[in-house]
């Protein structure tokens, strides 16, 4: 799948809208920020603040028997990291 340059890339680099060259640094940053926002929303959907309780086989009994580490536990950890980073900045 080729990169569809934005107006910024098209104007600066004289590219056609269907040119498949790499995006400029500005566009790469914007694309990355957009993907980070999508991931943060996904993490928020899974984070529930309920602690995992694992059985003696290592399966989470709180969240439908996911093996350790439970994806809900990981989402809670990631959300906590996001909350801390917001307070720091």
Quick tags:
single chain; 89 residues; mainly alpha; 2 domains; 3 helices; 0% strand
What general outline do the C-alpha atoms trace? elongated
Main sheet, how many strands, which sense, barrel?
A: none
First CA to last CA: what distance?
Answer: 35 Å
Question: Whole-number radius of gyration?
Answer: 20 Å
Please give the share of residues in helix: 40-55%
Domain tally: 2
H/E topology pattern: HHH
> Which secondary-structure class do the elements indicate?
mainly alpha
Describe the structure in your own words:
- The chain has 89 residues and is an all-alpha fold.
- The chain has two domains: 45 residues; 43 residues, no CATH class.
- The protein has three helices and no strands.
- The longest helix has 22 residues.
- It is elongated.
What's the SSE blueprint?
Blueprint: H1 7-13, H2 25-46, H3 71-88
Helix pairs in contact: 2-3
Summarize the structure in short.
With 89 residues, the chain is an all-alpha fold.
């Amino acid at each position: 799948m080729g990169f569809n340059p934005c107006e910024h890339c098209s104007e600066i680099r004289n590219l056609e809208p269907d040119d498949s060259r790499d995006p400029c640094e500005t566009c790469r940053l914007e694309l990355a920020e957009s993907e980070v926002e999508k991931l943060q929303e996904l993490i928020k959907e899974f984070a529930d603040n309920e602690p995992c309780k694992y059985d003696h086989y290592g399966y989470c009994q709180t969240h439908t028997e996911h093996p350790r580490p439970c994806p809900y536990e990981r989402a809670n950890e990631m959300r906590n990291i996001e909350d801390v980073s917001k307070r720091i900045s």
